[in-house]
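Problem: given the chain below (131 residues), write out its structure.
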Amino acid sequence: MLERMFNVEAMARELGNGVVYERLLVRGELRGFSSYRLAPNATELKLHKLYIHPNAQRQGLGGMLLQRVEEAARERGLQHVILTVNKQNTQALAAYRKHGFTIRESVIVDIGGGFVMNDYVMAKRVSPATR
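Solution.
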């Protein structure tokens, strides 16, 4: 599945469809990245990917990326950030809860190629920008 989601062609397609990728560099080294785009309902920002290199985890970098995604939602005048996370990914679930996300619904989606996503949709209300 990683090869399917993280090849150059797939990423180029995503960029062409409005997905934004942002890198997190620490002292010039790539330590993580996120990708997001406007959700299909056009009222929320959907976080698609958030990854931190294993050697850089538990240093607050994931929280920094989440703050940046929230800022992107705020800049667009959106009130929520949403994401999906595998129901068995207890570490990610705990991290998202720690940062204010709550479970909105449970979904099972056949994404083809023999892969089925058994996920929670999580959401967080984004406070409006202050001037």
